[in-house]
Amino acid sequence: MRRIRHNTPTGARSHTESRPRGRIALTAASVLVAAAGLGTLATPAHAATVVVSTSAALSSALQSATAGTVIQVRGGTYYPTATLQSTVNGTSSAPVTLTAYGSETVKIDGSSLPSGSWIFKLTADYWNVSNITFQNSPDSAVVCQSCTGTNWNNVKTINGGDSGFTLTGDGTVNNTVKNLDSYGNYDAATHGENADGVAIKFGSGSGNLVTGARLYNNSDDGIDFWSFSSPVTVEHTWSFGNGVNRWSDSAFAGDGNGFKLGGDGEVVAHVVNNSAAWGNAGNGFTENSNTGALVINRTTAYANGNYGYYFATSAARLGKNLAVSNGSGLVSKGSSVVSSGNNWDSGISTPSFVSTDASSTYNSRGSDGTLPATTFLTTGSSTIGATMN
Length: 389
What we know:
By secondary structure, this protein is an all-beta fold. The chain is built from one helix and 33 strands.
């Protein structure tokens, strides 16, 4: 629940991959591209487009990039033998881009990495990363440390040995995580106590946004803001099935909160809009000892093991939220909470759900990366609960 190991693995040059297409050598003077006609020389006036098809070439491209470089990864499954990483900064007008080539499917698999390794570590500013799956990591799959201005879109972090996607460190500023799927992450060594879908922990920095995420079936929490001292905004995000012992671990210790919004004594006003938590072992939404003025607006908590909303000590503002069929009750709120327009407030009725069948929430995303269309937990109401889109 509280841990992230700040390991700083160094990238080796020897990599393996499932679909070798030939080795690509990158030097300071030139970039040799695997696909003919798709590369340009890297000069100060013209950043390169680099097409890579081996793990070694990918590692080299990440470290040799300059502002404006576009790294395109050919389809296939890659098995690096050391953490992929970069400290190269882009700029706001010329970010570094890492993406799949065209519409090809790219998976970077951590099963050949040493124990305790991350798949991808970025300590840099102004990167755009999209359309890549990071899977089977020994530890966290993706860690962005003290990053500014990064954009992550249509990324998957699945079946890793700790949290799937992590933002951490002071100077974590203006990062956007959009349309992320993070699921199946489980830390066996600590019996599921730490592996979250998204961990924004141990750091500070304004302007960070999570939007359109699906965070599910992780051993600990869907999203966790432990010891992060600046407000984070979450919107249009689903967190479900977290904290359920799916690994037959007799000492299982996962908490299973959908949205864990604090901890470690930080007082911070995180914001959650139009999001939903269901089927989590713990609470749907919880302050986790954060006494700040959290804002939770137009969300839905359904069939979570504990409370739908647990805000016993904070000065949270809870508005237009909908809680149904949670194990310990709709809400637990202290005297400092401002509560208005929620279905536990006087005079507010509970609308009926169109569907309580969650199967459609596992469907493929839209062609633009948006969450799949569903009637699950929708009500048609324009005034209360998540709209589920």
